[in-house]
Amino acid sequence: MNTFELLEIACAIVPDRAAFVTGGNGQIRRDFASFRERTARLASVLSGMGVGPGDRVGLMDVNTPAHAETYFASAMLDAIYVPVNFRARTTEADHMLERTAPKVVLAGARYMDLIDACACVQSNGTQRIAIDGGSLSDGRDGWLAYDEAIESAEAYAGYPSGDDDDTTMIMFTSGSTAAPKGVTLTHGSFTSFVLNNVEPADPDATERNLLTVPLYHIAGVQSMMAGVYGGRTLVLQSQFEPEEWLGLVQREGVNRAMMVPTMLKALMDHPRFSEFDLSSLDVITYGAAAMPEAVILEAIDRFPGVRFINAFGQTETAATITMLPPEDHDLTGTPQEIEKKRRRLRSIGTPLDDVEVRIVDEDGEDAPIGQPGEIVARGARLMKGYWGADSDNGVGSSGWLHTGDLGYRDEDGYIFLTGRAREIIKRGGEMISPEEVEEVLERHEAVLEASVIGVPDDTWGEVVHAVVVIRDGSVVTEGDLIEHTRQALASYKKPDRVHFIDSLPRNALGKVIRPRVKEQFGGV
Fold it and tell me: pTM of this prediction?
């Protein structure tokens, strides 16, 4: 199934329903019929610029309706959409654009200089469209004005021919541990998840989703695809800002939101949190980074009546592959049931029905219950491979994707992460999971957050160092924290050193950038 059909289905059922609402001063409200019309006009513009099947179309901007319009316009032409991280520097953006060689790049006004500075844009003669660059008369040399071009174009009359196996998007990984890779995603990568996990648009049921996760990230694109097929109104926040988020929930009566843990914590820490009416919220999905147990416990308490979902996936899986459902966040029942649910809060839940997930040892055999191994997945939604890869494309001949995430499965089938394969610390032949040590450190009342790294050592090969952020007003020593971990873990797992820092370096989605921690505190 071509993803363009997701939009066609919604337009056929709820054409007059608002598809997009934006926050900020330049507020936009656009229904599904208008969304579809603008998409067809943009497809005509792109076609006139020479875009056809297999050509790439890049876009660099904060969250705006232009992302969805450009994606579906590209799909109409059987072209390939390339969302570019708007936080990227020139060299990073140049890497992504050089790898994918888009025929056209669209950019918000604040990113136009950066795009112009990319060497590959100049050398390839890449055509450019300014998303919010004003009219053609006051535009810049070499740039076409987005809204003016759409308004002056006729609707594209063709229809796409691409199906499940055809590439529709190249999305780059975060690059937190290596240079970003272009992940090749097909129409089936998205439709397999949506059709199996989302109800289609219903004229008698409305839902408003607040989308804050950036649309260059798989979680944002997954939310956009699900919202379009479900006929949901997507309330777009250009970039996350806690007070604006709270105001949008109140103003728009938002029912569902996707968050990353740092966003959720920032909301609850905001001094005006209690002043906003958040009673419309029904579901909060979180993911993209590890959720500290203390944060989700506080959220369950401070968002009464909200159902929480932990969704786990990665760019290479195109969407969620495991989920911890709302019932596992409901901390009611007998003491034994409550304790089991609290333990499950540290898990990523169980696999969805339409994807296979295994935990395998170094020989590729299923690891016993409770024993760690690598998480591998197989299913229709997984990537085809890495763009431009000549040999190792990340997916084996049997179709199993090696995620690089380590974890174990408990007796009830719940999966618990234990780290990344490349981040495991090897001390004197013993394997140490950074996440395990971090979890123990964060149980200490004085510790706000921690990052654990392996540091080269002549005697042990590697030793454990902890980098810790202390809660305001708390006092704790290095010796206190080392003893705290020694009480809970095998002696070889305790940190040899504890470094104190004001804040941990994180990427846009809240993941700690461990290589940067290593650079600062003695790692390689």
Answer: 0.83
